[in-house]
Design goal:
Radius of gyration: 23 Å
Strand content: under 5%
Number of strands: 0
Number of helices: 8
CATH architecture: Orthogonal Bundle
Structural class: mainly alpha
Largest sheet: none
Order of helices and strands: HHHHHHHH
Length: 234
């Protein structure tokens, strides 16, 4: 009798767990589509623009232009992303700047991506032989034209692998936005877990969704790298 009751309890618990898994899948995917993915894309694009500007300031020959970029990169890389999020969302209201959750997360992620990616962009530009610059100047190109038409296209190929890795890492980092009330994927998992108290199942489910997203992105990364490698002389 005891064995039979144990078997029935186990089957019932498994059925309830599976039902919870299925029912929570749609809210989590909805959170990913509405917030996680847009937050990742907008932050990465904005971060790349900031990274390019910062990298150009870093490689400038003027120390006055270099200094703000050096301080910015050092400050962002030297402090945790979570602390930056809290300063923007919870700290700035103390001085009268109230920013909604999603824009707060956007600002923090853009600054973070901009600082880290700027080092990748800077290293990629500096990896291009100086002869490329000299050849461009020889045919009458300005520094900006040479950068845009000669240097950057080559630097892009070099920077693809590290920037792709940064993009995939950013997808996972967006889970921190749940701490500033952005209803993204992990926030949805937290909300459901708070009602059902089945934390292990729901957090594992959230992890699986992140894994699938990152796995798909890694496939695209491999295809992108292979495409750019076609133009490299063997």
């Amino acid at each position: 009798m005891f064995l039979r009751s144990s078997i029935i309890y186990t089957i019932t618990a498994n059925m309830e767990g599976w039902e919870l898994f299925v029912n929570s899948l749609l809210p989590m995917i909805t959170g990913a589509i509405q917030y996680t993915i847009p937050l990742t894309l907008i932050s990465f694009v904005g971060g790349l623009i900031l990274a390019l500007v910062t990298a150009m300031m870093r490689i400038s020959k003027s120390r006055i232009i270099q200094a703000p970029a050096v301080v910015f990169v050092s400050a962002i890389r030297g402090t945790p992303l979570l602390v930056q999020l809290f300063i923007i969302f919870y700290g700035l209201p103390n001085i009268g700047l109230n920013i909604d959750p999603f824009p707060s997360a956007l600002i923090a992620f853009i600054l973070n991506v901009g600082a880290y990616a700027s080092e990748v962009v800077r290293a990629s530009i500096l990896s291009i032989p100086k002869g490329q610059w000299e050849a461009a100047f020889t045919i009458g190109m300005t520094r900006w034209t040479a950068l845009r038409r000669i240097i950057l296209p080559q630097a892009v190929r070099v920077s693809i692998p590290p920037l792709s890795n940064s993009f995939i890492s950013l997808v996972k980092d967006t889970s921190l936005a749940s701490l500033v009330l952005v209803a993204e994927l992990f926030r949805k998992a937290q909300e459901i877990a708070a009602r059902t108290y089945d934390f292990l199942l729901l957090y594992v489910e959230a992890a699986l969704i992140y894994w699938v997203i990152c796995f798909i992105l890694s496939i695209f990364q491999a295809l992108l790298e292979r495409r750019f490698d076609r133009y490299v002389a063997k």
